[in-house]
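Milestone 3.1: sequence recovery, worked example.
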């Protein structure tokens, strides 16, 4: 399993941010969009917010492909409807390429606890 982290900004407007968060509550998510996420090989997805910056963590299957996910999304009318709705709340990061929304982040630091402890007596 692989992990991907991505970032995107919301428009810096408290009312829009509140509405965006409302759309992402479990009871307001669209089942067709959730199904498309799972069908693409995304096993787990979390979105966090600080200010107007969003941070997404995705755990994906080994055969997941961003390119294939984009093709699937482009041919799914319900996903396109959702993306158009969400775009009224979102704005690209300044360094985003044309046509790109979420930007993949590169890892800078990792720390993992070990299960073994070396003890010298």
């Amino acid at each position: 399993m692989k992990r991907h982290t991505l970032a995107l900004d919301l428009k810096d407007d408290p009312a829009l941010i509140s509405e965006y968060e409302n759309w992402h509550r479990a009871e307001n998510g669209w089942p067709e969009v959730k199904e498309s996420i799972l069908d693409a090989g995304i096993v787990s997805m979390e979105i966090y917010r600080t200010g107007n910056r969003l941070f997404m963590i995705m755990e994906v299957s080994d055969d997941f492909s961003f390119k294939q996910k984009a093709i699937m999304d482009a041919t799914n009318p319900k996903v396109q409807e959702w993306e158009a709705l969400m775009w009224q709340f979102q704005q690209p990061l300044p360094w985003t390429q044309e046509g790109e929304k979420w930007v993949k982040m590169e890892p800078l630091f990792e720390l993992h606890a070990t299960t073994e402890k070396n003890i010298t007596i």
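The longest strand covers residues 2-10. Strands lie at 2-10, 42-50, 53-60, 90-91, 103-104.
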